[in-house]
Amino acid sequence: MADRGCPLEAVPLPAEVRESLAELELELSEGDITQKGYEKKRAKLLARYIPLLQGADPSLQAENRVPAPTQTTAAVSKQRKPRPPSSRDERFRSDVHTEAVQAALARYKERKVPMPSRRRSALTHSSVDTSTPPDTSSASEDEGSFRRPTRLTSTPLQSHSNTEPWLDRVVQGSSASSSASSTSSHPGGRPAATLAGPTAHAHVDVHSAPPDVTTGLMELSHRERPQLASVRGVARGCSGSVLETAGGVPVSSRVSSKIQQLLNTLKRPKRPPLKEFFVDDLEELLEVQQPDPNQPKPEGSQMVLLKGEPLAVGVPWPPSLLAVLQRWGTTQPKAPCLTALDAAGKAVYTLTYGKLWSRSLKLAYTLLNKLTSKNEPLLKPGDRVALVFPNSDPVMFMVAFYGCLLAELVPVPIEVPLTRKDAGSQQVGFLLGSCGVTLALTTDACQKGLPKAQTGEVATFRGWPPLSWLVIDGKHLTKPPKDWQPQAQDARAGTAYIEYKTSKEGSTVGVTVTHACLLAHCQALTQACGYSEAETLTNVLDFKRDAGLWHGVLTSVLNRMHVVSVPYALMKVNPLSWIQKVCSYKARAALVKSRDMHWSLLAQRGQRDVSLSSLRMLIVADGANPWSISSCDAFLNVFQSRGLRPEVICPCAGSPEALTVAIRRPPELGGPPPRRAVLSMNGLSFGVIRVDAEEKLSVLTVQDVGQALPGADVCVVKVEGAPHLCKTDEIGEICVSSSATGTAYYGLLGITKSVFETIPVTAGGTPVSDRPFTRTGLLGFIGPDNLVFVVGKLDGLMVVGIRRHNADDIVATALAVEPMKFVYRGRIAVFSVTVLHDDRIVLVAEQRPDASEEDSFQWMSRVLQAVDSIHQVGVYCLALVPANTLPKAPLGGIHISETKQRFLEGLLHPCNVLMCPHTCVTNLPKPRQKQPEVGPASMIVGNLVAGKRIAQASGRELAHVEDSDQARKFLFLPDVLQWRAHTTPDHPLFLLLNAKGTVTSTATCVQLHKRAERVAAALMEKARLSTGDHVALVYPPGVDLIAAFYGCLYCGCVPVTVRPPHPQNLATTLPTVKMIVEVSKSACVLTTQAIMRLLKSKDAAAAVDVRTWPTILDTADDIPKKKVTSIFRPPSPDVLAYLDFSVSTTGILAGVKMSHAATSALCRSIKLQCELYPSRQIAICLDPYCGLGFALWCLCSVYSGHQSVLVPPLELESNVSLWLSAVSQYKARVTFCSYSVMEMCTKGLGAQTGVLRTKGVNLSCVRTCMVVAEERPRIALTQSFSKLFKDLGLPSRAVSTTFGCRVNVAICLQGRQGSRCPGAPRWHGEQRPSNSVLLIY
Fold first, then answer.
1. Which domains does the chain carry?
2. What is the pLDDT of residues 733-742, one digit of tens each?
3. DSSP letter, residue 9
4. Where is the composition biased (Basic and acidic residues) (predicted)?
5. Got the DSSP string for 402-454?
6. What is the largest CA-CA distance in the chain?
């Protein structure tokens, strides 16, 4: 402002004004607006904050007097003060997660909620220091600014010893036109007096971009600016108002201004080519969440390398597994090797070691000598062969597996494809193709069940390479000559087999295991588990992979064990079958999952003749799942009385890459006592270990998975970045260095190096070992006694913001919310999708067929509350799909990656969806920045430039306030009410009905005006409130609420409508009332006498602290019968009018600030859309406490002048036909209701339409019946309502649904008949609250 010759008052502007200035500067720099338009809009934004100089006393300017801040500025500055962050109550801990979730849900309403905040634009985020005043140096020249060349001296600035440093920045950041003015010359061509002081040389080049007011303060600049040779000028208003060109020819100042703008425009860069519109710059767009300084951090010392016990020395280990097989096959041919059971639980076949050896030899001979192609062997040593066997045929799989090993072929076990489009089938085909598989082994029964082509051959599956199929039943194989023996009998470096693994993204890779690793792994398991010859092992797991293969097919042969394989089909029919087989075979070991233990608990009643006393090891293969501890504990509690000893339960952890990582040893094998830890989930989400000793809910109880395998070294490294060792109290990825791990991903050298050749280093960068480590994909830590603890898997890790969450934890929480009533067989999938470069949690569950939509939605809401309470994270989407529609994994579980893919492609077809992006998407874009990739904004701009038409929906245009004198006159609702009380005093505005249908209260314009005046007088005299104080209105639905609302507006207070507590349920409803009063900072509570007694009653004292209530006034007795001396008129349309508090479906309380401008725009748009005039009558059956219900109940009648027939929804419990009878009696053309009211009428009046017809109820007068949607469209309910009351004359096209959100409660409304098709979206652009979120659909 130095160029204006006047000091500028150092008053901080609101953040919204600074953001608008910043956007305006960017628009000017990008050529979106002209210089004149920029200056006009800028002057309009700053009009209220810059003292007007035109017509001012020059002496005041000479003395440099700074006027005091206006009342408006002071009020705005007061309400912009930052508010303290919200806090949460302490969590309460329970031993089991189910109890924790239920307790969390019960206490969910006691949480502290965020302070009510004005909804800010999704495209604006201020990074401005609130103490930085704005740049106001370039205002419109058409304002007649008072400028004198004699004032452009050093006197004004030098007279201020405390000149604000930002003033220097204002001079530096002046726009082009004002910069030219500040360096003007006198009419005679003599340069004007230059500025003295620190701003004497602070200039900006004419052609530089306008300043960015959103940046921080600039340092003082003393650079010299060269004088312009082409154009020099003086300020307007001087005696010599001319400009001189370089040749000294005087020209008009206005023409020179246009030339100056033209020069600035020509200096701007040209429009980029079309293709560049589709590509954003590499600037970071999204908000980067900064770490909380108070978040828990690891504090322990750096961990040391954990070394497992050495392999037993002196034990005569065999040279290879095949040598052991030959030994048992020839010396113990009748020893049982494997017993297969059918679906009824009967032993259908027992494979002896002699039969296994002979059949494997026969298969090996056939593969090497009898399969030819063009007179050449089809297979040669090292080739890969697919093994396709069902889970019910372990015998033939074992023969095929060892037959391939004997033939020096590499078996690749895969699942049996059931259809041509199985879930994950294409990824399995990619694995087979990359492995070069050309032959698949199977059985005759399995081949007959495979899908066939028209030629009768096995069909080609999607993504699979061409395969030849070989049936290996006895009649199809050739007996080898007596002198034929396989070549390899020792453990060598070649690949023994390939085990498939499905990654988090759905891709399938193959983990190669060499013969040496295979033998070392079997030896380590033998030593860790204490296996001995002729022991019996009951195996419930899949024998083709993981622990089922390692124990049941490989290690069992090393020790000549007898394996009883229980198929999955039998477990579905009889979950106790494995326990019965343990009892009947006197098994010494059993291999199960926690799922099998849980199923056994559900089916164990009545089975009293079983005994588990023979077990010395019950290996829980999914011990890496931290939630397996509940099944272990419950199983022990039930079966301990039947011979099961506590030390028998041995959890273990493993992965396809590292094979077995750790396993718990029984005490007789030297294992330490088992341990468990109760960890804080909040700490785990930050990657640290905090043992939670307090009674809290958000805890995770984990058990150890034992000690590392013999001969293995174990360490824990950081999940992200370089593999640095973690601290002792830090969660990281477990790494193993051993000769008994996988060696590579087949054919994938890149990721093989990062997974199988990791070199952990210390904090100083020193490698911890000279041997490479293998990443296991398990997240955990090393606990006491060198025990390994696992808290999750890397594949289930979801990083939301800067916190980590595990999918298994979210599933456990969802299953704890009464799943049996709503979820089909507990089938829940949790995964994450990327939205705005961050993980968002998606939960998909199968809905029971008998679950109603309303019950399921209630369950969904409770799940969201539980997840938010336990894990403190929001769920992006919760979807329920029909039963048996999610893609299945081979053993019946949910195929997670395929489910995620269907979700992304929109192929899930859910029957219920609950989207909650507002609770989890917190890194919204910054203002006017570019995305690092092609985003939606780039596509829109590119399509527009290319001339493509983009679909859109828009409502009718509303006249702007500046363009309409009438709109400016009645911008504020209090002014409208006063005008109506003066012009139409006896016009009825409100009519309240009771349950009997009689009118209990009315209000004309003058009656409402007088009652509002009395309320305002009471607030000012008795409550001693001042302008801007918040007042809570706790009223039942009625006219008293409306009068109290306008009474607050009359005295300048901010009303907050609050639903009154229910007298019969104070313990639940009163804390919500108290919470809103406290969060809104209400200085007074207005209510009725009955509610006031209720708020101070003894029952209320048991729920809340009644001593902390603010002043409570009864509007029936405490109101004086006199009016206020003057009615408050807001100094600005942006002043706060009221607070709109609402509770979301997740139980989160949030407040929205509504300004007077937004309130009037909302009423104006509803008036035009619904054609509301003083001669109209509308019927309203809504709760008047938030959203559109409040607007229709309290605002629209005063603004539009129509009569509102008010029907409290609570009265319908006594008379369900009250609303429809009122609509018929008053012949309302427009009526509003809620889904609950419509459902109540549909259920309660379904059989009474005839009775209503006889009573004269006729709904043919209804033109529009709008349902205010609280959460989601309920199409079935609206259709049922329309069909049911069609007999009463209700038009079929009358019923429609409004759509809105918190910050825009009426995005679309059903307008007049014929305006558009029902349900067409309409956007009322001006009814949004100030700085609200701009929604684009």
1. 2-83+123-267 (no CATH), 313-334+349-515 (3.40.50.12780), 829-950 (3.30.300.30)
2. 999 999 999 9
3. -
4. 86-98
5. HHHHHTT-EEEEEPPP-STT-TTHHHHHHHHHHHT--EEEE-HHHHHHS-B-T
6. 124
